[in-house]
Amino acid sequence: MSAIGSGTNDQFVRSQYVASLDDQSRDWELVLRESHHRMKNTLTLLGASVRRDFARAGARDVSVALDRFERRIVAFGRLYQLLSDSDHLPAVSVEAFFESLCEALSRAVLEPAGIRCEAAIESGTLPMSQCHRLALMLTELVTNAAKHAFPSKNDALIRVEMASRDGAWLCTVADNGIGATGPLQGTGSRILEGLARSIHARLQGEAGQGGTRVTIVMPTAA
């Protein structure tokens, strides 16, 4: 009986291990899909801003347009680095990581579109895996707002907040745009929801005449 019980237990442990590996694989595939999705959308915005700049530039302004384009490419490289760093790094500074992310997003995506960015990031630490997934979600929300929230608005603003409250981190992206009919839609929303599940977070969204606001609520113990 002992041998049979032991064998059954070993089989159970192996099956649980395989299931865990499958979950990790699906999680990583999700992150990769979102990374590719994000880079594609960011490159689309970058290309549009370059075409706009060069269409406006006269012969004497080409060097200025080239200089702006170079700065955007550098910022895009920094953004890609932040979104693709290893998940196995130890805990990192929330303030340093997300301030760098907001700066890269502002230079690569928002400034070329004439959108201001404000960031209010509280200090603290989180595992790199959680920062990485929050960063992918935040970038999705910011670029989505940049693409859809401001069809004809001169004082466009996107504000990013990271705050620790009651055992959870709250990551909020708010804009003063036209107000989405649904803050989360399409392929991006499905990936967002999958990433949220991977860190045991939930999404809260609201939209109205004052703009759209989406908050990611992630338990500290996730």
From TrEMBL:
Keyword ATP-binding: yes
One family name in Pfam for this protein: HATPase_c_2
Keywords: ATP-binding, Kinase, Nucleotide-binding, Phosphoprotein, Transferase
Catalytic reaction list: ATP + protein L-histidine = ADP + protein N-phospho-L-histidine
EC number, as in UniProt: 2.7.13.3
Presence of the UniProt keyword Transcription in the record: no
InterPro entries noted in UniProt: HATPase_C_sf (IPR036890), HATPase_dom (IPR003594), Sig_transdc_His_kin_sub2_dim/P (IPR011495)
A GO molecular-function descriptor: kinase activity
Stored SUPFAM superfamilies: ATPase domain of HSP90 chaperone/DNA topoisomerase II/histidine kinase (SSF55874)
All residue ranges annotated as the Histidine kinase/HSP90-like ATPase domain in the record: 118-189
Ranges where the Signal transduction histidine kinase subgroup 2 dimerisation and phosphoacceptor domain occurs: 34-108
Top EC class for this record: transferase
Protein name: histidine kinase
